[in-house]
C-alpha cells in the first residue's frame, strides 16, 4: 500500500521522498511529470542504468557530475565517445566508475541514434509505450508493469543494454508515463493535470 507523510509545508507527499531533502525537491518538481525532450529521456535512461544495484540518492547526488562528464547527455556527442573517453570517465570520481555501465551509456547513445532515424524521435518511441490503463492507481506498489516489460523487451531487441523491466519502469514513473504518486499525495493531481495538457509526440506518423 502506498502511503504519504506530511512535509514541512503541511502538504502530504509520497512517503519515500521524506528520506532526504534532495528527494523532496526531485519529487515535487520532476517526478511523474511528462517529458518529451529526447535529451532528458536519454539522460534518464542512462542514469537509471547507472543506478542498477545502487540507490537513486547516490545517482541524484552525482547527477550534475554525470551531466558534465557526458556532455549534457547530448546523444550525438555521447555516441561519438571512444576508448579514450571511457578511460577518462573511469577516472572521474564524480560519477559511478563502472566500465560496463559507462560503455553501455555510449553504446545506447548509438542505439538511440538508430531508433531516432526509424521512429522520428526517442520521445515518439517512448510515448508509444504509455498505456492509459497503466498510469497508476496511487495505491499499488510495484516494480514493473506490462508496459515496462514490453519496452524493455523491445529495447533489448534493438541492442540496448541495462534496460531491464525494473529499470524501465523507474524511468516511466519519473518521465510521467505512469502516475505513481500516492493517492493522498498533494502532487498527484498536479501530475494528472500536467499529463492532461501534454501532447505525446507522434514521430513520423
From TrEMBL:
Q: Which GO terms describe its biological process?
A: base-excision repair
* Record flagged with keyword Phosphoprotein: no
Classification via Pfam families: Adenine_glyco
Per UniProt, Zn(2+) binds at 14, 27, 181, 185
Give the GO molecular function terms. Answer: DNA-3-methyladenine glycosylase activity; metal ion binding
What keywords would UniProt list here? Metal-binding, Zinc
Q: By its UniProt entry, which InterPro entries does this protein fall under?
A: Adenine_glyco, DNA-3mA_glycosylase, DNA_glycosylase
Which SUPFAM superfamilies would you find in this protein's record?
A: DNA-glycosylase (SSF48150)
Task: Write down what this protein is called.
Answer: DNA-3-methyladenine glycosylase I
To which species is this protein native? Pseudacidovorax intermedius
